[in-house]
Each structure stands twice: as structure tokens, then as C-alpha cells.
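[job 0417] fold request received: PIG-L family deacetylase
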Amino acid sequence: MTVRRMLVVGAHSADFVWRAAGAIAKHTRAGGEARVVTLSYGERGESGELWREPGQTVENVKRIRHEEATAASKAVGAAYECFDLGDYPLRADGDDVERLAELMRDFAPHVVLTHPEKDPFNPDHPVAYQVVSQARLLTSGAVVEAGFRTAPPSEFLVFEPHQPDLCGFVPTVFVDITEVFEAKAQAMAAMSAQAYLRQYYAERAEHRANHARKVTGNKEIRHAEAFQRMVPNVVGAL
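[job 0417] inference complete; emitting C-alpha cells
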């Protein structure tokens, strides 16, 4: 039996929690393997609560954010690592793209999740998209014989941004996370530096569940997450 593998890449250490923790938990609960990679800790732009402490330092903020993200990942059954590239601005070069591509070759994910290509409010999120998109293409080698190590093409989806209407996000997939919502809530609770987002994303999961109920007629869906496919999925029949 093939174990399904999921790779989730965020610009900052908490991005995966708000937007995809439920899908990750659903994936791992079904027996899949999941890895979370964040390109930065969000130590400058997304850790305001931590900077209220007198004498705070960048290294201590990174340490706290690492502990929080590790706990959140554990809550949904995923492994966690951070590339620690810095934030606001997040800058990534060819070596960073190759680093992620090499990780993808080793892990060979069946599905990859990251940010949408556009975000007028956050300069780091589009950078993450570009890094992931390039790394994914390098990993598969354009699906032809290549002079370097490759991995099979993965499904490629973006998760819902904070302001979907202004980011060109159009959901094409809803994941029913009703049965794992407590795991997502536990992951959100781990991110104390951004506690103000917990209610927003709990309510967003209810909103998307309403949409999923309308699509399916399944009245049992109480919480859902939304995603948009970047490449078509292939099925044997409709």
C-alpha cells in the first residue's frame, strides 16, 4: 500500500496552521505522511505580541516561534522544519529554490500546498509561491528524461489567503475537516504569538463548511478548508 505524502510550504511559521492544519490532520489521520516547511519564522512581521516583552531579541523570538510551530505540527501529525530565510522582506535565491527542490526529490510528495501567487497585503507570500512553484518544476524535470535526479509530478494546490477576494483566490476544492477540527484548534492554540487569529480562522472554517454543504448536500459538514488547484487533476472517469 502506497503511503500518501503531503508537503506544505509557508512563508512564515504559522501560515500552515490557519490555512491548512485541518487538511494536514485529515491526511495524517488517514495514514498519510506530512511535512511542513516554513521559509521563515515570521520573527519580524508576525510576532508582535512577543516583541512587547522588554529586552526581547530576534533569536529568542525565533526560538519561541520554532517551539510553537513544532507543537502545532505535532498536533496535526506532521514533521516541521524552517529554512530561516528571514521575513519582511522574505528573500530567496537560486540556492534556496534548489534546497527545497532537493527536499522534494527526497520526500517525493503526492500533493504540495502553499500560498497563492498574489497577495497585495503581504510581500512574503508571493515569494513563497514562486519558490515552491520553481522547486516543484525542477523536481519533476518537466516530466522528461533529465540529467539530474527527479521525482514524480505532484498535485499542486494553494491554500486560502487572509483576503481571498483581493488575491485572485477561487476555491476549487473543499476539504471536510469536521472530524479533525479539534486537532486544528489545538494547532491554532499553540501559536500564542498570533492568538488574535484563532477566532477568525475558526469562523472561516464554519463559512467554508456552509459552502461545502451547498455543493454536496451533506449536512454533517461543520468545518471545512478551501484550496485552489494550480494544475488539473486526472481521473479515470466522471
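[job 0417] notes: The mean pLDDT is 95. The chain has six helices and seven strands.
[job 0417] exit 0
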